[in-house]
Amino acid sequence: MFHPTIPNYKQAKFPGVVVFSEIYQVTGPVARFARQIASQGYIVAAPSSYHEFTGPEPLAYDGPGTDAGNAWKIEKAVSAYDEDATLSVSHLLSLPTCNGRIGATGMCLGGHLAYRCALDARVSAAVCYFATDIHSRTLGKGKNDDSLERCGDIKGELCMIFGKMDTHVPPEGRDLIRKRLHEEKVNFSWYEPAWAQHAFIRDELSKGRYDAALSGVCFEMLKELFNRTLRSDLGPRDGGDIEVEDVC
């Protein structure tokens, strides 16, 4: 848990955000990402996705860590991932300092889990960084998830971010996700930075993909979406048509 504080305002209320980690659990980069969000005035819960198999300690960014993370990713049932998300949202809402509005975000595996978290009607917005396995429907035990089929259940707003050079989610996979979101009339934004590879927001340089400039741009997108949807009381979305002006 990462909780913001404002001096002399002990009863201040904040929105909640669930941060889902990559396959390495809550590593230093994930914890720093969570603290960044908390410093903007959000209560952050960062669950350990592999608690059925190991402790909360992060896996190393090396061969054995990668192998363990990838193995557990498909040993765990999709229903168990969903239970983690449900419990995380419920915990945030139970806090007396939570204002009752919830967002979700995550990277890699966590991007997919943030997307699935948005299937919960209590979640108003989700920012999904390079979400893996949605296009291939291969998350969890049996490698047969229903995330893409259920996208019409998402009532909040999505922001989907993929590097254009991400080999984990190839162009045809990204096109499939975007097409499906359009077909189901999901309210979403889409961003594909031209030179970004997979995991470009991970501020750990052993794999050489971190891009601080692009990460900053994407964090501003997260702030805009969460500030608009979690801090403001917008009321229910009516889903009506918006008049679009076809003029310069």
From TrEMBL:
What InterPro entries has UniProt attached to this entry? Answer: AB_hydrolase_fold, Dienelactn_hydro
List GO molecular-function terms, semicolon-separated: hydrolase activity
Q: Where is the Dienelactone hydrolase domain?
A: 10-228
Say which domain of life the source belongs to.
Eukaryota
Q: Which Gene3D superfamilies match?
A: alpha/beta hydrolase
Report the Pfam families cross-referenced here. Answer: DLH
Q: Please identify the protein, giving its name as recorded.
A: Dienelactone hydrolase domain-containing protein
Q: Which organism is it from?
A: Periconia digitata
